[in-house]
Write a structure and sequence with these properties.
The structure is a single chain. By secondary structure, this protein is α+β, with helices and mostly antiparallel strands. It folds into 2 domains: 69 residues, Winged helix-like DNA-binding domain superfamily/Winged helix DNA-binding domain (Arc Repressor Mutant, subunit A), CATH 1.10.10.10; 80 residues. It has 4 helices and 9 strands; from the N terminus they run H-H-H-E-E-H-E-E-E-E-E-E-E. The strands form 2 sheets. Strands 4-3-7-8-9-6-5 form a 7-stranded antiparallel beta sheet, with no helix packed on it. A two-stranded antiparallel ribbon has the order 1-2. The longest helix has 17 residues.
Length: 177
């Protein structure tokens, strides 16, 4: 499949659908998506028509109906669709963040002597993260990396929280014999 160029609005709505669908594993109603992205339900219905035409969304009829993302939706959003993704914990101001999982950590400025930032891509809503919040990410499954930092910004369209890193640790393990 070729790469699909989505508008920021389509990307925001599709990301919300994927996140809500992964939480409830059932069709998601347009009203739920509207509440998540703070838009009018009519706007969501209109956008869903274009997302259906792009084969990114399928409609589920009936009283328990709504919308489901297709495999193409995950590809268009560049999300790996894992059956059981590893859980990478996330805390905000000391409290665990429910219904969110760290998808990717990108260290963007390790070469800078006075500054170290990380972009943390989250599957789940980043709406509750605010500048100045204290965030801890990890430990990651393989390297046991733990990052502690302060929120410097966020990109809701792409599900990113930008952290100014205060402390980072990946414990070294003894080599296996």
């Amino acid at each position: 499949m070729s790469s699909i160029e989505l508008t920021p609005s389509q990307k925001t709505i599709l990301t919300a659908l994927v996140n809500l669908y992964s939480e409830q594993e059932d069709a998601v109603k347009g009203e739920e998506i509207a509440a998540e992205v703070d838009r009018n339900p009519g706007t969501i219905r209109n956008q869903m028509q274009s997302l259906k035409a792009l084969q990114l969304v399928e409609g589920v009829p009936g009283p328990k109906g709504g919308y489901k993302p297709t495999a193409n939706a995950y590809e268009a959003l560049d999300i790996d669709q894992l059956d059981q993704p590893a859980e990478v914990r996330l805390t905000r101001n000391g409290d665990p963040v429910e219904n969110a999982n760290v998808e990717e950590i990108d260290l963007t400025s390790v070469h800078h002597p006075d500054l170290c930032r990380a972009e943390v891509r989250i599957r789940g809503s980043v709406r509750e993260f605010h500048e100045g919040d204290s965030v801890t990410v990890g430990p990651t499954p393989l390297s046991k990396l733990v990052i502690e930092g302060t929120v410097d910004g966020k990109d809701e369209t792409n599900g990113l929280v930008i952290l100014q890193i205060d402390h980072m640790e990946a414990p070294a393990e003894a080599p296996a014999h």
